[in-house]
Amino acid sequence: MNTNVFSNYRNWLDAQKIPKGKKAVLLSALTLFAEFGFNGTSTAKIAQTAGVSQATIFKYFKTKQDLLIAILQPIIQNFFPVYRDDFLAEWQNFNTLRELVHFIIHDRYRFLKENSDAFTILLSEMLTNQTIRRLFQKILQSSKPIFVKQFQKKLLQNGVRKDLDSLAVFRTLLGQLLTYFLQQKFAPQIKVNEENDLKEIEDQIIRAISGQKREAN
């Protein structure tokens, strides 16, 4: 497959020059794995949804595990290194903690929404699938030195508590964002107002990493 950078997995896949049947299998598996889980989805169901035979699936993918990796590997290998470099270049334009946090929350939340199915699968499989976990850890380890160094420097310049290291700040950012993303994914009955909710998330993060107190009403 072409390994061009992408910001939306479905759009990226649609642009790939691969056989129509293979593309249909990947898209069907993406939807079904996200809804029913990897173990809860049979190749028969994938074939039915894709409008192909099971033989077509195994023509392109030796096992269902290979199909899963074919979906997630481009996301892990293409997105994260490029995101790291683009992210670090982009956030040099912001000069206050509020601007930095606003950029991170809105930019990454938009990406999570646009790739909701893919990230639902990735988060689920990282808990139980050693192959996926190793792929992800390999990318993180290669990115960690440059990311941590620049991330820490920029944060300290903009008022982050000196007793917090960059990983603690990253966990705070990621934890808040993923919790909100998963809430909307798995508890859609809970009413949300994204603009207000994301603003509240920003406020909570800033208070946590800067030591600022909530302003009185």
TrEMBL record:
InterPro entries: DNA-bd_HTH_TetR-type_CS, Homeodomain-like_sf, HTH-type_Tx_Regulator, HTH_TetR. It comes from the Bacteria. Residues 42-61 bind DNA. Pfam families: TetR_N (PF00440). SUPFAM superfamilies: Homeodomain-like. One of its GO terms (molecular function) is DNA binding. Keywords: DNA-binding. Residues 19-79 form the HTH tetR-type domain. PANTHER family: ACREF/ENVCD OPERON REPRESSOR-RELATED, ACREF_ENVCD OPERON REPRESSOR-RELATED. This is TetR family transcriptional regulator. It comes from Pediococcus parvulus.
